Amino acid sequence: MRVWIVFLLCLAGKALAAPAEEEPVIDEQVEVGSNPVQVETGEFDEAIEVVEDVAAENPCLNYHCKKGKVCELDDNNEPLCVCQDPLTCPAPVGEFEHVCGTDNKTYDSSCHFFATKCALEGTKKGHKLHLDYIGPCKYIAPCLENELGEFPLRMRDWLKNVMVTLYERDEDNNLLNEKQKLRVKKIFENEKRLQAGDHSLDLLVLDFEKNYNMYVFPVHWQFGQLDQHPSDGFLSHTELAPLRAPLIPMEHCTTSFFEACDADQDKYIALEEWANCFGIKEQDVDKDLIV
Ligand SMILES: [Ca+2]
Ligand SMILES: [Ca+2]
Q1: Of all helices (H) and strands (E), which one includes residue 148?
Q2: 8 lies in some domain
Q3: How much distance in Å is there from the Cα of 254 to the middle of ligand 1?
Q4: C-alpha span between 284 and 288 (Å, rounded)
Q5: Which of 113, 119, 139, 161 is the least buried, fewest Cβ under 10 Å from its Cβ?
Q6: pLDDT band at 283 (very low <50, low <70, confident <90, very high)
C-alpha cells in the first residue's frame, strides 16, 4: 500500500525516478501533476510524427521526429527523420535514467533505447521490442494468482485518491476540466469516502462493495488519460507505457495484470476490458464518462 502512496506523491510532484525529459516542449505542455500518468508520456511517444511550420533558415528547426529519430536534411534540403545514433544520446546522469527493454536488456537511457529500437525498424525483433520499465533490468518475482487479485484493489483505490488529490490541488482550474471536477466533487464531498491510507485488502474489498459508485469514474478517467495516441477506445502497449513502466519495478504483478486485462488477447486493451479488470460492471461502462 505504501508503494502506492509513494507512487502518487512521485507522480504528483513530477519527481518520478524517470529519465529527464529531453523535449522541453513536453514540459511546457504539462502542468505539474495536472495529468499524473501522462507526465512522462513524451518518453513513450513512439507513434507520433508531427510536422510543424518549417523554419526558413533551418528546415529541421521545427520538424519533429518521433523518439529514436533525429532530423536531417536530404539532398534537396528537405528535412527527414532518420534513426538516431545511440552514441549521440546524452550520457545518463545516474542509474535512474536506465530503462529495461522487453528484451531484458538494460539501456543507458530511454534515448539509447529508442535509438536502438529505431535501428531495428521493420524487423520482427524491432516490432517486439518495447520499453518495459524504468530503471535497470532486475529480477521481478513471478506474480502469484492471489497477488494478481490484490492488484486491482489497490490500483482502483489509488486512482480514486489521485482524483481527489487533483481536485484538492486544483486551485487554478487547470488540473481537471469542469466536467471532471463536477464528478470528482461528488466523491470528494461524500462523507462515506474511504480516506487515503494504508488499508487492509479486506477493507478495500468492503469499500468497493459499499462505495462502488465512487470507483466508476476514476477507472474511466485513467483510461481516457492514456487513450490519446490515437484516442480510439483502445490502449496500445505504447499508450499504456506511461502507467506501467514506472510501476513494474514496484509492483511485480503489473505485467501479468495488464496481460490478463487484454481478455481477447488482441494486444489492445479496450475500454470494456479495462473496466472489467477493475471490477466495473458491464452496464456501467460508458465512454461518455471519459470527459
Ligand atoms: Ca488508443
Ligand atoms: Ca483486447
Answers
A1: helix 145-169
A2: no
A3: 19
A4: 11
A5: 139
A6: very high
Which residues keep their CB under 5 angstroms from ion ligand 1? 227, 232, 234
Closest ligand to 227 CA? 1
- Does residue 245 share a domain with residue 168? yes
Please enumerate in sequence order all residues whose Cβ is within 8 A of that of 95, keeping only pairs 6 or more positions apart, or say none.
135, 136
Residue 15 pLDDT greater than 50, yes or no: no
Per-residue pLDDT, 49: 56
Among 287, 156, 177, which Cα is nearest to 233's?
287
The answer to whether residue 17 is domain-embedded is no
Residue 184 CA from chain centroid, whole number? 21
User: What local confidence, expressed as pLDDT, does residue 21 receive?
Assistant: 32
CATH number, domain containing residue 127: 3.30.60.30
Residue 215 phi, psi (nearest 5)? -95, -20
CA–CA distances in Å: residue 59 to residues 47, 50, 62, 75, 98? 22, 14, 7, 13, 32
Domain that holds residue 203: 145-289
Q: Is 204 in contact with 160 (CB distance < 8 Å)?
A: no
Does residue 201 share a domain with residue 126? no
Q: Which ligand is nearest to the CA of 223?
A: 1
Three-state DSSP at 225 gives: helix
